[in-house]
Structure formats: C-alpha cells, structure tokens
Specification:
Elements (H helix, E strand, L loop, with lengths): L2 E6 L2 E4 L11 E3 L2 H86 L12 E13 L5 E16 L4 H12 L15 E3 L3 H6 L5 H4 L3 E12 L4 E8 L14
Parallel strand pairs: 6-7
Antiparallel strand pairs: 1-2, 1-3, 4-5, 5-8, 7-8
Length: 255
C-alpha cells in the first residue's frame, strides 16, 4: 500500500492526515503499484499513438480518395469534352457537306433556269431579269391631314428560283441574293442605290434622313412583296421605289 510522507533531514516520515495532510510532500508506492502506474501510462501513450496513427491514416485515405475521385471526374469530363468535340467535328463536316451539296444543287438549278430563259452566259448570269417596271399613283396621308398622291415606280424582278421552291425557301434565297451583307447590291445595276425599311409615308416623316439620301432611287422595304408567276414558272419580287429605273442592262432584260 502507498504511504503518504513528508521529507525530513534524516529521511521520510509518515504524516497522520494521509493525502489530505498539509505536511505531505511525497507518496511512497509499492513496486507493484509503481509498475501498475507505469503500465497504465504506457497503455495510455500507446492508445494516443494508435489514435494519432489511425487519424493520419484516415486523412491519407480521404486525401487519396479525393484525389482519385477528382482525377476520375476530370477524366470523365475530358471524355465528355472529347466526345462533344468529335460530335461537333462530325456535325461541322456534315454541315459543310450539306452546304456544298446545296450550293451545287442551287448552281445547277440556276443554270437550268438561265438556259430555259435563254440567259447568257448561263453559268455566270445571276438569273435575275426585269420583266416590268411601271409608274403608279400612290396615295398616302401625312399625319392627320388630307390624302396626298405621289408617283412611285413598281418593278417586277424575276428570280432564277422556280415555283417548285417553297415560299420560305424562295424568300430567303432572293433576300440573300438582292441584299448581301458585303457585296454590291445586284439591284444597283438597274439604278436602285438605297433602301428604306418602312413605307413611303414613314420615309417622308423621318427627319433623320439626310437630303443626300433622298436623292437616291430608294427601294421601300415594306412595300415589296413576293409573287409566284405560274405562267412563267418562277418566283418574282415586286417592289416599289421612288424613281424610274436607270438603263436596264441587256443581260437583265427578259427575253
């Protein structure tokens, strides 16, 4: 059994109050008690080392799993991107093929239309010809005032697209041919040098338009219409403009 003692000059002396005695300075243990305490300390230290090892192992495993999952996700994402790239490349190639095919079919169709109408040279001719152009009275109201009349011109331009084309197809193709975003307008060859998006009355009320612009032969965008001429067999664009046509080139006159 352990003893509670105080240190003196000649050694250790047991104190009567035991552990609670204020003069107690030391505790004398039996060998068995000492060994038990040492064993408990060693066990506690080992448990602490084991706990630390387990915690570090779990952290390493978690880091490895996270790295694996991240790598796996990155690989799957890359596969998806590669797949989309392959799909896009295939679609782009198919689109390019279809565009070339459509362009080739359009070219053949236009050459046939030119040959049928005796337009030469059939391979280079635009396929557009003026079939009629006439002066017309156009009535309009200026604001709330009385009706006015003005002389406008109506021109019929026959396209190379047969009536077997749908209205939607013909409208799109004619629009692209007549009003390209970069090249010179085809209708400039017949003297139409400007276009206004609205009607005639919209134009004369538009104070933003310069006097220089008004000097042009202006096509009125909202006063044009598509027409299927089944007698001739071709789609035609009928449009209004502000001045008579210039001299129509011989190759743009209907035979």
């Amino acid at each position: 059994m352990s003893e509670f003692v105080k240190k003196t000059v000649i050694g250790y002396k047991e104190v009567p109050g035991g552990n609670s005695d204020p003069e107690c300075t030391h505790v004398i243990l039996t060998k068995k008690e000492y060994e038990e305490i040492v064993r408990e300390i060693a066990t506690a230290e080992q448990k602490a080392r084991n706990a630390k090892y387990d915690a570090e192992k779990q952290i390493r495993e978690a880091q490895q799993n996270a790295h694996y999952e991240a790598q796996k996700a990155a690989e799957e994402a890359q596969k998806a991107v590669d797949g989309m790239k392959d799909t896009l490349a295939a679609e782009t190639a198919e689109k390019g093929y279809q565009q070339r095919l459509n362009a080739n079919l359009l070219r053949i169709s236009k050459e046939r239309a030119n040959a049928e109408r005796k337009l030469k040279p059939k391979k280079e001719h635009t396929g557009y010809v003026v079939t009629a152009s006439e002066e017309k009275d156009y009535s309009y109201r200026e604001g709330s005032r009385r009706w006015n009349k003005v002389k406008l011109w109506e021109t019929v331009l026959q396209s190379p697209y047969g009536v077997d084309y749908t209205e939607e197809q013909a409208r799109k193709l004619i629009q692209e041919d007549l009003f390209p975003s970069e090249d010179e307008w085809l209708i400039a060859k017949i003297g139409i040098t400007a276009r206004y998006g609205g009607t005639y009355e919209d134009m004369i009320d538009d104070r933003k338009l310069s006097a220089e612009f008004r000097k042009n032969n202006i096509l009125l965008g909202r006063q044009k219409r598509l027409r299927a001429n089944f007698r001739a067999g071709y789609w035609e664009m009928v449009f209004m403009h502000t001045k008579p046509l210039g001299i129509v080139p011989a190759d743009m006159r209907a035979c």
